Here is the input.
Amino acid sequence: MGKGCIAATKYFLFLFNLLFFIFGAVIMGFGLWVMLDNQSFIMVLQESSTTLKVGAYILIGIGSLSMVMGFLGCIGAIYEIRCLLGLYFTCLLLILIAQVTAAVLIYFQRDLLRQEMSTIVNKILVNYTGHNKTSEHAWDYLQRTMKCCGWTGPSNWTENVLIKNGSQILYPCSCRNDSIGGTESQETGLCQSLSSDWPVHSTGCVSSVEDWLLRNCGVILGVCIGIAVIELLGMILSMCLCKSVQQEDYTKVPKY
Here is the structure.
């Protein structure tokens, strides 16, 4: 391989590693968001779902490892160190295999995941009080923003302990449909209804979440494919550069 090709490969690999470092930071940031955000549907599931918590830790781990690999790949590319390039290729291959495996498992276990989500949400609805519980506020936020009610529909709320046993006709305030008349409007908690027909949205949140995923599946798929392409190109470039390095010169590596 000519010197010009080696130089081009080296700097292309440096660029791809920089992008890989950035993608690693994005993945780690998403994992941290899943763990820390308390105003989303994710928080509703996380409080009861061990699977989601483990998934968040895996995302943080993969993101951190990707950032480290990106850094090592940059150093290996610039200073042409074969051991770092080989280590980078191996770790990149393992990460790609892990991502494909996770995607396949999610696809084939989607019905089980949906059932688990249904169980978690129904448990929250039955025990809902509206008193400063993080998962309850997160569910209220979801119902308000997506204009939905319950998991499959408003009937899920009829099993709520306070609604079922209360002397008044109560309904979840966050389900309220503003186009229908009612007595009061609150963002959280339970509100009193004037009649047995609740002034709420008739659509269940499972339908709203699925519609959101369908509307954004192109973006999600594009991001996943983009990450996979960058990883594959990084592996190819690292192998090409590793083969072209005949003798390593460690004197070029800065000493700290």
In short: The mean pLDDT is 76. DSSP finds eight helices and two strands in the chain. The first strand starts at residue 170 and ends at 172.
